[in-house]
Amino acid sequence: MSQALASSVPGRLVRGGRRLARHVGRGLLDVLYPPRCLACQARLSRARAPLCAACVAGLERAPSEVARQRLHALPSGSGTAIAAVFPLWRFDPDGALRALQHALKYQNRPRYGRAAGRWMGRALAETLSPPPEAVVPVPLHRTRKLERGYNQSARLARGVAERLGVPCRPGWLERPHPTRSQTHLSRQARWENVDGAFSASQSLDGRPLLLVDDVLTTGATGAAAARALRHAGAGPVYLATLAMAE
Ligand SMILES: [Zn+2]
């Protein structure tokens, strides 16, 4: 046995031991607290999926035509920065999607984002052809990110990118300017609030890109983000969201 190989054996054993401990630890947690569907509490076979198959099957696909109309209704043609829009599910005020969004946003469960992103990616793989060169999450301003501890759209984007087999590039888009919450603003005020909030960190050389956000309401945030990417030279910019608000 060579010197190098001999010296790497203990390191491998330690790493293997840590992996085993993690595996056993997770297994033990699953026995003590069996993973359950966020919405109906059914037991789940895979701890990393937030919802059971029946709850996922019960979600209603969002009509992309309605999303397109919302983008067209944005002030001064700003919605045209988005080449095509793909909202996955229609928002259900009392249903499974609400439970998932709530867990993602307010209950500090970022790992669900990646799993939900894979669901988005699976639907996109059927409709978005050819695939984009990279997936870019809509960023949070750093103050908001500090409050929440993570950006839920970045978690979704990672799952989408994984499923599409393309890189995820959270660093390509920045949000240097803080904005007010969009919740109680009119369509016009929402656009004014986010217009100019984003900037791209580098030249994007005609690359087709997919923006990922958690929810589409008027589309103003996605359009402002897409505009910043287009200003930096991106090719067509697509927008995918987990949910479409009423
Ligand atoms: Zn369920």
Task: Walk me through the topology.
Layout: H1 3-32, H2 53-57, H3 64-72, E1 84-90, H4 96-106, H5 111-127, E2 134-137, H6 142-148, H7 152-164, E3 173-174, H8 187-194, E4 199-200, E5 209-216, H9 220-231, E6 237-244
Helix pairs in contact: 5-7
Zinc ion (ZN) is lined by residues 37, 39-40, 42, 51-52, 54-55.
Low-confidence stretches: 1-6
Distance between the termini: 66 Å
| Rg, Cα atoms, Å | 20 Å
Structural class: alpha/beta
- Give the C-level CATH assignment: Alpha Beta
Strand content range: 5-15%
State mean pLDDT (0 to 100 scale). 88
List keywords for this structure.
246 residues; alpha/beta; Rossmann fold; four-stranded parallel sheet; two-stranded antiparallel ribbon; disordered N terminus; binds zinc ion
Task: Report on the architecture of this protein.
The protein has 246 residues and is an alpha/beta fold. It has one domain: Rossmann fold, CATH 3.40.50. Helices cover 46% and strands 13% of the residues. It contains 9 helices and 6 strands. The strands form 2 sheets. The chain has a 4-stranded parallel beta sheet, with helices on both faces. A two-stranded antiparallel sheet has the order 3-4. Strand 5, helix 9 and strand 6 form a beta-alpha-beta unit. Helix 5 packs across helix 7. It binds zinc ion. The site of zinc ion has 8 residues, from helix 2.
Brief write-up:
The longest helix is centred in the N-terminal third of the chain and has 30 residues, at about 5-30. The protein has nine helices and six strands, in the order H-H-H-E-H-H-E-H-H-E-H-E-E-H-E. Helices cover about 45% and strands about 15% of the residues.
